Every structure is written in C-alpha cells, then in structure tokens.
Amino acid sequence: MPKFDFDIITLGHGSGGLLTQRLLQSGVFDVLKNDMLDQQHDGAILELNGKIAMSTDSYVISPVFFPGGNIGELAINGTVNDLAMCGAQAKYLTLAFILEEGLPITEFWEILVSIKEAALKAGVQIVTGDTKVVEKGKGDKIFVNTSGIGLVHPKANIHHNRIKPGDKIIISGPMAAHGIAIMSLRKGLEFETTIESDTRNLNHITQQLFDLFGANIHFMRDPTRGGVASVLNEVAGMTQLGYLLDQKQIPVDEQVEGACEMLGLDPLYVANEGIFIAIVNPLIAESFLYQLKKEKDFTSAAIIGEVVDEHHGKVLMKSRIGGRRVVNYLTGEQLPRIC
Amino acid sequence: MPKFDFDIITLGHGSGGLLTQRLLQSGVFDVLKNDMLDQQHDGAILELNGKIAMSTDSYVISPVFFPGGNIGELAINGTVNDLAMCGAQAKYLTLAFILEEGLPITEFWEILVSIKEAALKAGVQIVTGDTKVVEKGKGDKIFVNTSGIGLVHPKANIHHNRIKPGDKIIISGPMAAHGIAIMSLRKGLEFETTIESDTRNLNHITQQLFDLFGANIHFMRDPTRGGVASVLNEVAGMTQLGYLLDQKQIPVDEQVEGACEMLGLDPLYVANEGIFIAIVNPLIAESFLYQLKKEKDFTSAAIIGEVVDEHHGKVLMKSRIGGRRVVNYLTGEQLPRIC
Fold first, then answer.
1. B42–A222: do the CB atoms touch at under 8 Å?
2. Which residues on neighbouring strands pair with residue B145, listed in sequence order?
3. d(CA B230, CA B232)
4. B330 contacts A15? CB cut-off 8 A
5. Which residue does chain B place closest to A86, by CA atoms?
6. Which end of chain A is less enclosed by CB atoms within 10 A, N or C?
C-alpha cells in the first residue's frame, strides 16, 4: 500500500478538487494503470467493432469483506459474467465508487487491489471511473458500480426465444455457496463453516464453450440474486415453456446444504456468483458437460433438467423421492444486499 | 403514473425475485421502452463500429429534487455530457439504481419519467439496468449510476496534449447556477431566489461545433464538481502551461453572483451541469463563439482567457481592477453531494 496522507475517506475526497486528485494520484491511478485510464479524462476513447454487449451492476454487498472475496472482485466478476452470459468477452469496464465518509483508507486500498487482480484475471481493462463521497450514515462503507462492454463471440446466439422443448438445462457447479458464505457471516456462524463465496469470472470458460458449441447454446444466465429458481422462473415467464428439474442431479456442497438446512433456506433461491445455467441443444448436452467438467472450477457441473412442452410458464422439480412440486419465484427478500 | 400495488420501496424490490419483477413490470420497462431494453437480459446487444467513447458517473445529489431538475435528468445529462466532452455523440446508456428502503414510489416514478424525457431529448437509449435496495439509513433515497458509450465524431480530436500557448479559453454560458440552486435549497434561501440548475445536454451543440471546427477544438470539459477553477487546474497540471483568465469576461448571472456573495462562495469553484469549457485554436475562436451564441442556451458564451507559455502549471486571473491572482484548486469540499 502506498503512503496516503490521510487514514479515512472524507467528504472532500468527493469534491472534484484537490483532495479528490490527491486520493486518485496517491495510488488509485497507479494500481489500475493502463493507457486509457492514464488519460484521466471524464471518458475513455476505445476501438471496438462489431456486435457489442453492454451491461451494468451496482454492488452493495454487506459486509464488504467476506470469506472468498470482497466487494471489489465481486464487482469485476459480476459485470464480466453478465457480459459472458450475453455471449460476449468483456473488454472495457468503468468503475464508480460511492464511498461513505469515514471509510478507512486501508479497506479502500484492499478493495482496489482486489479489483485490479480480478480485472487482470478476467482480462479486462478499467478505462474510466468516478468517485463520490456521501456523509456518514447516508451510505454503507462502499458501493461499487461497474459497467462494461465486450465483443459478442461470432458464433454465439443467446436469446430466450431460442429455447426449445427437449433442450437440456445444465448448471456449471454447486449452488448457493455465495449466499451461504454471506449469510453465515451475518448470522455469526462463521466459526462453524469454511464455506466461501464462489465469486469468479466465467468469461474464459464461456468463450471456450462458444468456440466449440456456438449457436447450439441457446441460453445462458448466471443465477445471482434470487438463485437458480428466479432465473428459471424469469425464463419460464418469457418463453411460456415448462422447466423440469431433477433434484437429485442438482449439485450442492455438503457443508452448504447443511447450512441451508440450519438456516431454513432452500438452496434453489440462494445467490451464486460463480456458476451459470446453460440451456442447450440436447444433441450436444453431454459433450458440453464433458468439456465443462474438464476445467477444475467446473468439475461438479451437471445436467439438472430439461425444457418441456407442458407446465407452460412454470418451473417444476422432481424431488429425490419422486414427487413433483412447483418452484415459484422468490416472493420476498431472503438475503438483502447479497451482491 | 401506473397503478403500483405498493407505496414505498422495500428490501424485497431488490431481491431479484418476484417483487423486483413486479416493480420493473409495473411500469419501469414500459416507460423506458426500446427494443434492446425489452430483451430484459442482464446485458444488451448493440451494433457499434469505430472509435468509441465510454464514461460513467454515479449521482448522489441531495436533495434529489431541486429547482430546474432532479437526480434523474442530471444522471442522463451528466453522462451524455461527459461523452460529448470526449468528442462523442452518446448513443447507449446503462442505468443502475441504489434505492433506500422506504423511498416513496411516487418519487421514484417522477425521477424515472425525467430520465425518460432527458434520454429522449439527448437522443440516447437506455439499454440495460440494475436495481438494488439498501436498508433505511444505509443510503439516501436514491443514488443513480449511468454509464454510456457513443461514437467519437470523425473530425473530433480532443486531448489535453493538443492545447497550445495562444489557444483561447471559451465558456459556453454563465457559471455556478447548478451549485447555487442546490446550495440555496440547503441553506433555506429558496424563497429569495429563482435560480435554477443549468442541467442540460450538451451533445447536440458539441456535434454541431465538431462539424464546423473539427480538430481546431483542442480540448473540452464540463466544469461540474469543483467548477471552472478545478477543471482548469487539472488541465494546467497535465499540460504544464499557464491559463490566464480575464475576470470581467466570465459570465455569471446577477442573481447567482448575489447568492455567491451572500454565501461567501467564489463562483469559479461552484458546480455547473450545463456549460462547457472549450480550448480552441485562436484562429477560429471568434467564429466558434459566434456559432455558439446563435443557440438560445448559449447566448452568454464568452472568450474568458487564453493559454500562455508562462505561469507553467498554474491558473491565473486578471481581476476586474487589473491585479492578477493565482486560482488554486479547491482544497476542501465546498458543497458535498452537488451531483
């Protein structure tokens, strides 16, 4: 960490004047260094040609540090992944902070370093940014917005209207790790579990999958807030097809499942930050799964169900003991500020 | 306003589940309607070719409603203008909300309608978005992030390293209206003044100016937080040239000047949201000014100074009575949360 001549963030750091400059020049620009950011204009100039995906997310997770990560890498991975789910390789990101007066500079720095490392891993550049400061009690330590653009893979064609009955539903890894990692912290269960958030970028694996399977991948989405149940309900609503899941195929880590039981949570509704759902042509489903499972982060990937031409607009689950139940939308808020 | 089945924003509206859907489907998607947003994916797919500008800003202004506008149009105009200052015509915007639990839905709706109208005026499309909700007391009504991309005008070439001694410094209109409009509200002076924020888009006028003057426009920046003094100090620091202003040429409305005096503020440091500074080739300065003044929003435009090969890295002002003083960076925070 460089030597800052202040210990906490003050309102003046959001003034746009000398203190803002001092904050940025003390190390922020250095740590995020690249040719475009170095221009220090209010915007960046880029070259990009073709079909572009664009995405935005604000991150308000509490607490900002959690097992397996912090709000900084979450903010990079989250937007990188939203673009990946559009079939795109994230390329340029913007980064905007809303800091609460009093935030220790050491915490800000730790988050910034995570941002840098996550951006490096994902292969994206942060090209422009913004820093605002609000009074103590009008924010909560730090909120981060990242927005990004990237080129859509030439073979990708992701759209909910491409989903057909018979398509297979694939999940890339075990559910609910992120939500349970946060929830354990909040409920003070951290001493009992070693559950970590699954925050990771998904852009490298999805690019590989598009290379191999192209338009046979009909749809992709990362089940963040609201979990797998919410993503599939959204898709069911849009396509008016039925989505039939097989509970015994859905991967959940043992510790996570135990924590879910203890907390009375259904893992289907719990947030994830490092897995995706793919809905694919049944002809390539096994090959897709095979490729996915070859990668160390996705060894638990599984085919968890299929799209059917009944139960229109609904998600159903075949339970372990054979019954079927409707999996509804999350009706309230299970875990506020999970991302 | 459509019929919402709730009066205030609750944490559940940020769940990503049923309530989030209900909020968005009750009218948000309708009011912002366009082909790309209608996809309701986590990202949007666009076509764009060439040199692109990208920008982001979070808006945390307090109060969110103020004379002349609200946080919604500010958020659209602000990012549109940042792109305009890069020489670009804004085309696609993302929109991300951080709502505080308890925000009246009527206020949210009013802001949303302003966003729609400002986007329409500026000719930009909101292509994707995000909605988060934080607990009461962890935010302040509503924070808005907009990020945007646009095509750089083929003739534009804006860069601080293009500024040369002899260049003229032009301002597009009277200073300090936005900051004083907000400050008057906070200090309870609203009954005494009719000062309104100058929030407006600048992209149409700048496109016209790039059509006419192209690369003879060396630099452009909108003096928002920190005002004209901060922008010029930043530029002075980057170019290591001198920036000599002539106080009697700098337009300030009479009421604004009066309010500044009453509040003990120097208008050079007060925020603006609808003017820009252009640094141009002296050969075209008068024509540039003539074109600018033809437009009703820019009739007070003026040449306020020039770039000199002395006072390196500094901004100086020739006062009305002839003396010269250094115009420093704003050292503290004059008006927190002005944008």
1. yes
2. B58, B96
3. 5
4. yes
5. B43
6. N
pTM here? 0.95
The number of C-beta contacts closer than 8 angstroms across A and B is: 277
Closest residue, chain B, to A42 (C-alpha): B82
Give the pLDDT confidence score for residue B190 in this predicted structure: 61
- Is there a contact between A57 and B96 if contact means CB atoms under 8 Å apart? yes
- Token digits for B192? 């005494």
CA dist., res. B14 & res. B4, Å (int): 16
Look up residue B336 and give its amino acid: P
User: Among the listed ranges B14-18, B129-133, B207-211, B273-277, which one has the minimum average pLDDT value?
Assistant: B14-18
C-alpha distances (whole Å) from A4 to each of A23, A72, A105, B175 are 8, 20, 8, 33
Angle between helices B203-213 and B71-85 (to 10 degrees): 10
Longest dimension (CA), chain B: 66
C-alpha angle with apex A118: A112 to A119, nearest 5 degrees?
90
Within 8 A by CB and 6+ apart from A195, the residues are A67, A177, A180, A181, A184, A253, A255, A256, A259
Contact yes or no for B145 and A140 at CB 8 A? no
Chain A interface disruption, residue of B10, B35, B54, most A CBs within 10 A: B54
User: Angle, nearest 10°, between helix axes A254-263 and A177-186?
Assistant: 50
Which residues in A lie closer than 8 A to residue B132 (C-beta atoms)? 58-60, 337
Each residue's pLDDT tens digit, B68-114? 999 999 999 999 999 999 999 999 999 999 999 999 999 999 999 99
**Alpha helices, DSSP H only, in chain A?**
18-23, 29-31, 71-85, 105-122, 177-186, 203-213, 227-239, 254-263, 285-294
- Quick: pLDDT tens for A200-242: 999 999 999 999 999 999 999 999 999 999 999 999 999 999 9
Interchain proximity A139–B135, CB inside 8 Å: no
Neighbour-count burial for B22-41, b at 16+ CB within 10 Å, e otherwise: bbbebbbbeebeeebbebbb
d(C-alpha B14, C-alpha B10), whole Å: 8
CB contact under 8 A, A53 and B46: yes
Count Cβ atoms below 10 Å from residue A150 Cβ, excluding itself: 27
Angstrom distances, CA of residue B12 to CA of A118, A226, A335, B15, B278: 30, 10, 9, 5, 46
Instruction: Give the residue from A301, A319, A277, A267 showing the smallest Cα distance to A167.
Output: A277
Q: Is A143 in contact with B140 (Cβ distance < 8 A)?
A: no
Which of A54, A133, A226 shows the shortest C-beta gap to B17? A226
Substitution target in A19, A21, A138, A234 with the highest count of B β-carbons within 10 Å is: A138
Q: Which residue has the higher pLDDT, A277 or B27?
A: A277
Residues of A in contact with B10 (CB under 8 A): 333
